[in-house]
Write a structure and sequence with these properties.
single chain, mainly alpha, three-stranded antiparallel β-sheet, 5 helices
Length: 167
């Protein structure tokens, strides 16, 4: 949950033009956390869905969404749309190249084509790259949260009693 909140906060941060952008290295711990969370989630989904459906091939997004309460469905769709739109707003800047510094000059490096840019252009590009990466990570964190909610709701309750044996 903390990874999802942090990713979403970073996405919002990149839309604020008056605040300095964070160095991209800040995303590394978030990515490591995503990997730590993601693989166990995939294993839980595989085990849980195989037990319920008999095969992973029958798993669909609709199956996951149908198991969520209405408030969670609404929230998941709203966040997904917001994060996809945020990632798409970054694409025009990303396709121009990667921001970098060479010899004290701010540049955009697009597959070997180097263009010197202004400070504003450089930080706009940094923000776009951060927004794209953070939005994608937030989508993955969100999926993990949704999947864990579904799997938790499918578990048998520990408080269920066993039928009487008649003894």
């Amino acid at each position: 949950m903390l990874g999802f909140i942090t990713s979403c906060a970073l996405v919002l941060w990149t839309f604020l033009p008056w605040v300095p952008q964070l160095p991209e290295v800040v995303l590394v711990p978030l990515l490591i956390t995503l990997l730590i969370v993601w693989f166990p989630t995939i294993l839980q989904i595989a085990v849980g869905m195989r037990a319920q459906y008999g095969s992973l091939l029958r798993l669909s997004a609709g199956d996951l969404m149908s198991a969520l309460p209405q408030w969670a469905k609404t929230l998941a769709v709203a966040f997904a749309i917001g994060l996809v739109v945020s990632a798409l707003t970054a694409v025009p800047s990303i396709v121009q190249g990667n921001p970098d510094m060479q010899g004290g000059k701010l540049i955009i490096n697009e597959h070997g084509t180097i263009v010197e840019v202004t400070n504003a252009q450089y930080w706009t590009s940094v923000a776009a790259h951060e927004r794209f990466a953070s939005a994608i990570m937030a989508l993955f964190f969100g999926f993990a949260i949704m999947a864990r909610m579904v799997l938790k709701s499918k578990r048998p309750s520990k408080t269920t009693s066993t039928p009487a044996t008649g003894r």
